[in-house]
Task: structure prediction
Amino acid sequence: MEGNLAKEIYSFEGSANGVNLPPSTSNVAVSDSHGEDASWYDSDEEGCGPSGQDMEWQKRSQHLYNSGYRDGITTGQNASVQEGFNDGFKDSVLAGYKWGLVRGVTSALDFLPDQLKAQMVDTDEKRSEFKCLGETVGSVSSEDALKLFHEYVQMKKSGKIKGDL
Result:
């Protein structure tokens, strides 16, 4: 059924891509009451413009062309968006993981009792470095961290920064 519908919609004389299609009805010869050959469109008003069937064909053809064009644009946009998302995710997931790890460890150390901090971190100098790092990381909001990461990516693309985070 689908093949017949396609032939009906796209029927024209000759062949397309090696597929022979039946000739369109505009060139089918029939005999009139006098035995003379006449086409379906013979009338007294031959030069009056396109027939109803031609106008219907043009309307269907234009509609299918527009639909196909829109579908193609949408598919291309979706593929492009997905590719961009995949690239961005790949670039940002490791940086986000590292940021979360630093934030979590420094927060956990900050809330430990002093006795446990002394057991885990040997010197007062290192404990004060962890405390300073925790305060710095804690003061940066998630939105600000995203902005900083975006700036980092832009600088890396321009070649101002080499290497990874």
Q: What stands out?
A: Strands lie at 15-16, 19-20, 29-31, 37-39. Helices lie at 2-10, 52-111, 114-120, 124-139, 142-158.
